[in-house]
TrEMBL record:
Family matches, as InterPro entries: Amidohydro-rel, Metal-dep_hydrolase_composite, Metal_Hydrolase, MTA/SAH_deaminase
Name of the protein in its database record: 8-oxoguanine deaminase
Sample GO molecular function, one term: metal ion binding
EC number: 3.5.4.32
The organism of origin for this protein: Kyrpidia spormannii
Keyword annotations: Hydrolase, Metal-binding, Zinc
Residue intervals of the Amidohydrolase-related domain: 65-432
Keyword Zinc annotated: yes
Length: 459
C-alpha cells in the first residue's frame, strides 16, 4: 500500500516530459502512493486540498529540484560478486563471458540476496525507483535466487521486475556457457510458472512483477524460446533477452541459424509489444522497421557496450522510427556500477559523439530513463510526475558549488552535466525510502556490505 506524502517548498520540479517547462512554486501531493495534486498553492489548493494534509507526512524540499523516479531496464545484480575483476579487462563479450562463467558457478541464493540489496541500494541512491533484473544463473540447488531478490526489493522499498532467465545450450552443443550452468527446460518452465504465480502483481502501481527472459540466442535453443513465449503470453507477463549485442553474435546467428538475430527472433515468436531486447547494437534498416512495426522495445546500455567493445546502439534511428527505448545499467561486471544517473549522462555523450546534431536532446535522454523505461516494462503509470501517476521521485539539493550556474534548464542538467553524488531523497509510492544518506526501511548499508564480503570471502 502506498504512502501519503506532501512535498513542499521545492525550488523547481521537472515532470519528465521533454516538452514540459520546468515548474516552480508547486506543491506535490501523493495519496495512497499516487500523485493527487501537482500545482501552485492557489485558492483551490487552500480550500480543497490543504485540509486533507493534516495527517500527511511532509517532506521539506527547500533548495531542491524534484525529478521523476528513473526506471532501469537491464541489469544482472549477481555480477556485483565479479565487479571490477582484473581478469576480464580488455575482453570482448564472448571472451569476457567464457572467463566469467566458471566464476558464476559460485552464485548462491544468499549471494543473490546480498548482491541485489547492494545493487538496489546504489540504484536508489542515484535516483532509480523501479528496476528490473535479468537473472539467468541457477547453479544446482540454487533455484530460489529470484525469491531472495524479491525479498531484497521489499527490504529496500524499490519497485522490482524480477526476471527468470535460463540457459539451455552449453559448450558441448555449441553454446557459450559451460555445461554445468545449463538447466533442463522442464525445470525452467516449471520454475517460471511458480514465480509468476507467487510474485506477479499485474495491477497498476504494483511493486513487483515477473518477466521471463531466456539469456540469449547464444545460450538458449529455439524450443525454449518458443515455450517461454507461450508461457509468458498465457499469463500476460513480459519477455526479455539479449540481442544483436556484438558483431560476433551477428556472425554466430548467420552461421548457426542462417539469419540475423532479429529475423531469428521473429521465427521463434519473439517480436511483439510484450518484448524488449537488451542492447540491439547491430541492426540494419529492415531490423529497425521490424522492431518498430512489432512494438518491440530496446534497453540501451551505453557503458557496457563501450567497455566490451560491442559498438554503438543506433538510439537516434530507433527513437525516430518509433521503437520504444529505455536505459539500462547492465550487469555489474560490465559497467561496473548500478548508477543509472551516470548511465544517462554516458548515453547522452555517446549519442552526441555518434550522431552529431541528429542526436537526442538532453531532455529526450532524461525521458528515456523515465517514461521510455516505463514503457518497456509495460508501466505507463511510472517515470513522469503528473496527477494520476505513481508517487515516485527523487530530490536533488542544488545549493552546491557543482550546480551553480546550471539553473537555465534543470530538465537538461542530468544529461549534460550529470549528477555525481547520491541524491538527497528518493521516494517510492509516496514513501521516503532514502534521505540524506539514511535508509528508512530496515536496511543497514554497512551491515549488508559486511555480510556480502563475508560470503564472498574477500574485501
Ligand atoms: Zn546484460
Amino acid at each position: 500500500m502506498g504512502g501519503d506524502l506532501w512535498i513542499t517548498n521545492s525550488t523547481a520540479l521537472v515532470t519528465g516530459r521533454p516538452e514540459d517547462p520546468v515548474k516552480t512554486g508547486v506543491e506535490l501531493v501523493i495519496e495512497g502512493g499516487v500523485i493527487t495534486y501537482l500545482g501552485s498553492r492557489d485558492r483551490h489548493f487552500q480550500e480543497r486540498i490543504l485540509h486533507r494534509l493534516d495527517q500527511c507526512e511532509v517532506l521539506d524540499a527547500s533548495g531542491c529540484v524534484i525529478y521523476p523516479g528513473l526506471v532501469n531496464t537491464h541489469h544482472h545484480m549477481y555480477q556485483v560478486m565479479t565487479r571490477n575483476h582484473p581478469d576480464v579487462e580488455g575482453l570482448g563479450l564472448f571472451g569476457w563471458l567464457e572467463r566469467l562463467f566458471p566464476m558464476w558457478t559460485g552464485v548462491t541464493e544468499e549471494l543473490a540476496y546480498y548482491t541485489s540489496l547492494l545493487a538496489m541500494a546504489e540504484l536508489v541512491q542515484f535516483g532509480c525507483t523501479t528496476t528490473m533484473d535479468h537473472h539467468y544463473v541457477f547453479p544446482k540447488g540454487q533455484l530460489g535466487c529470484l525469491d531472495r531478490q524479491f525479498e531484497a526489493a521489499e527490504r529496500i522499498g524499490i519497485r522490482f521486475h524480477g526476471s527468470r532467465g535460463s540457459m539451455s545450450v552449453g559448450h558441448s552443443r555449441g553454446g557459450l556457457p559451460q555445461d554445468d550452468l545449463v538447466e533442463d527446460p522442464d525445470t525452467v518452465l516449471a520454475e517460471s510458472e511458480r514465480l509468476i504465480r507467487t510474485y506477479h502483481d499485474p495491477h497498476p502501481f504494483s511493486m513487483r512483477q515477473v518477466v521471463l527472459s531466456p539469456c540469449a540466442p547464444t545460450s538458449v535453443d529455439a524450443a525454449l524460446f518458443r515455450e517461454t513465449a507461450d508461457l509468458a503470453r498465457r499469463y500476460g507477463v513480459r519477455m526479455h533477452t539479449h540481442l544483436a549485442e556484438t558483431m560476433d553474435e551477428i556472425t554466430y546467428s548467420r552461421e548457426k541459424f542462417g539469419r540475423s538475430p532479429v529475423e531469428y527472433m521473429d521465427d521463434v515468436g519473439w517480436l511483439g509489444p510484450d518484448v524488449w531486447f537488451a542492447h540491439a547494437v547491430h541492426l540494419d534498416g529492415e531490423d529497425i522497421r521490424r522492431l518498430a512495426e512489432a512494438g518491440v522495445g530496446v534497453a540501451h546500455c551505453a557503458s557496457s557496450n563501450m567497455k566490451l567493445h560491442s559498438g554503438i546502439c543506433p538510439v537516434h534511428r530507433l527513437y525516430r522510427a518509433g521503437v520504444f527505448v529505455g536505459l539500462g545499467v547492465d550487469g555489474s561486471a560490465s559497467n561496473d556500477s548500478s548508477n543509472l544517473l551516470a548511465e544517462l549522462r554516458t548515453a547522452y555523450l555517446l549519442q552526441q559523439l555518434a550522431e552529431g546534431p541528429e542526436a537526442l536532446t538532453a531532455r529526450e535522454m532524461l525521458a528515456l530513463a523515465g517514461t521510455g523505461g516505463a514503457r518497456l516494462l509495460g508501466r505507463e503509470e511510472l517515470g513522469v510526475l503528473e496527477v494520476g501517476k505513481a508517487g515516485d521521485c527523487f530530490l536533488l539539493n542544488i545549493d552546491r558549488a557543482e550546480y551553480a550556474g546550471s539553473g537555465r534548464d534543470w530538465a537538461a542538467m542530468p544529461a549534460t552535466q550529470g549528477i555525481h553524488r547520491p541524491v538527497d531523497a528518493t521516494v517510492v509510492a509516496g514513501k521516503v525510502i532514502y534521505r540524506d544518506g539514511n535508509w528508512y526501511n530496515g536496511f543497514h548499508e554497512k551491515e549488508v556490505i559486511h555480510q556480502f564480503h563475508r560470503l564472498l570471502g574477500t574485501r
